[in-house]
Amino acid sequence: MARALGVSPSTVAGWETGRDPAGDTREKYAYFLDRARTRLTGRPDPASDPDPHRAAPAALTGAATPEDAAVEDAPMRDSRENPAASAPEAASAAVPAVPGDDDVELLPAPQPCVLCAAATWYRMAGFPQHLSPDACAGAASSPAVGPSASPVSAPREASTPLRTPAPTAAPSPTPVAGTGRPVAARRDSASITGAGSAAHLITAAVDKALADHHGDIDAAAAALVKRAIPDAMTLLDTVRKGGRYDVIAHPWIPDILRKPTAHGADQVWEARPKWTRPHLPTGRHHVTALDINGAYLSALKTHLPIGQLEHSTGPHHDRRRSGVHLITPPRWEHDDVLPNPLGNREEPGPVWVTEPTLRLLLRLSGPRHGLCEPPVIHESFTSGATENLLEKFRVLLKDARDRAIAAGDDLTLDYVKAMYSKFVSTMGESNYNRQLYRPDWMHIIRSQAFANLWTKAYKAHEQGLTLVRVMGTDELHLTGDWRTVYTEGRALTEVKIKDTYTLDGTPG
């Protein structure tokens, strides 16, 4: 259904749980449901409805443009005008049977397979193609259908990079030759194709942007950053295919996660650090400001709630679930040498925090650290959770980042950074990303980045370094030989120098 409507599977899942589509998509969705109901209850009488696609929206009938219709119809005309073109399969003297698969249709005349260009009687998921790699291999030596077979033989979008899915595009999976497994493909020329691995899509996007802007790196970079949000969502859908869990994109959200006004904030505290050491030992200190690489990218590995959040009360914490929790935080008595893991919060009393903040406080209250009392949990909104929900997506972007750094490819590096940073910042209540509405994920991922920074700061403190400042998601200022604790570099596990300066200490 998602392929037919030109949206992501997660969007359809949101509709099925109560969120209504709007605009043209609503019309297509209603048409799809009506036709599906007709198919299940019995086909309409051909005499009363000779054209079953008469009322279908253009995006569902496949006739998006006259040019597309001409290209797709050319092989059919050629096969009628030149019967020899369809000889490889027509020679069977009988029309082949349709396998028992809803995605497979029998063509009225042979057309060139999009994978091998040889004639085929079958259309699968909207494209004429053989039903297995063996069939392609067996037909590889056969002549292509008609004089236009050469340009049609390869998918028209094969070199097209990631693009924003157009509302009228009808995405269709295309099997990869040699594997028989479908990968993401979209029919519109302004969208991503399934030709190649997901990593290839990033490379193709950069190459296409450079080609479109005649090698102008600044113009290509601006175009890639502008497309970063829809491209990231398309990559997510691509790598999540066949995943153990479905991404629930539009679940019911409790009021604490809703903004009271357009420019207001919800009730969840992310524990963002903004700490400066109140006193330094007497003397002059050489301070190094370190930058934590890819903080939000690393934070994608966190315990995310899979489905709709469910309310519970009581002090129990279930590590198999994740969400937001109303807690009374413990008193922090180490602010002179360590930042408060709850961040720069001045208001006393209960506060809604995310899963990473709660887990950090619980760890610090345990016997290994003993730095505070356990937080008191009053109520929670949680769902069953996994730490690997975005792991394939994270690893894909991490590997692309590593390759770009090794090759000195700043254009790809900036593009990857724009994808993961904008992905995190727009997955809440944002008009820039209507495909994903998970403010709980947004808060959890941000809080995980802050918790990761606090953990790195604590590691430095344990190794005898003096913390001076801990700021935001990625800023760590300290004195001492920091290279004994961290490795300098640009990888996600490394740090780089942001600044150096001196301070005069004053006795406390």
Question: What does this entry show, briefly?
Answer:
The protein is of the alpha+beta class. It is built from 16 helices and 16 strands.
Structural commentary:
By secondary structure, the protein is an alpha+beta fold. It is 35% helix and 17% strand. The protein is built from 16 helices and 16 strands. Strands 6, 9, 10, 11, 12 and 13 form a six-stranded mixed β-sheet that branches. The longest helix is centred in the C-terminal third of the chain and has 24 residues, at 439-462. Residues 45-93 and 142-196 have low confidence and may be disordered.
Number of helices, where a helix is a run of at least 4 consecutive DSSP H or I residues:
16
Structural classification: alpha+beta
Gyration radius from CA atoms, angstroms:
28 Å
Average pLDDT, all residues: 78
> Helical amount among residues, as a percent range?
25-40%
Give the overall shape, derived from the CA principal axes.
globular
Measured by DSSP, the beta-strand proportion falls in: 15-25%
Largest sheet: 6 strands, mixed
Uncertain stretches: 45-93, 142-196
The multimeric state of the shown protein is: single chain
- Number of separate strands: 16
Query: Separation of termini?
Result: 66 Å
Explain the layout of strands and helices.
Elements: H1 2-5, H2 9-16, H3 23-41, H4 58-61, H5 66-81, H6 87-90, E1 104-112, E2 119-124, E3 127-128, H7 133-139, H8 149-153, E4 174-175, E5 182-183, H9 198-212, H10 217-226, H11 228-240, E6 268-269, E7 274-276, E8 283-292, H12 295-299, E9 304-305, E10 310-313, E11 321-328, E12 351-354, H13 355-364, E13 376-386, H14 391-407, H15 410-425, H16 439-462, E14 466-471, E15 475-479, E16 495-505
Parallel strand pairs: 6-12
Antiparallel strand pairs: 1-2, 2-3, 4-5, 7-14, 8-15, 8-16, 9-13, 10-13, 11-12, 11-13, 14-15
Helix pairs in contact: 9-10, 10-15, 11-15, 13-16, 14-15
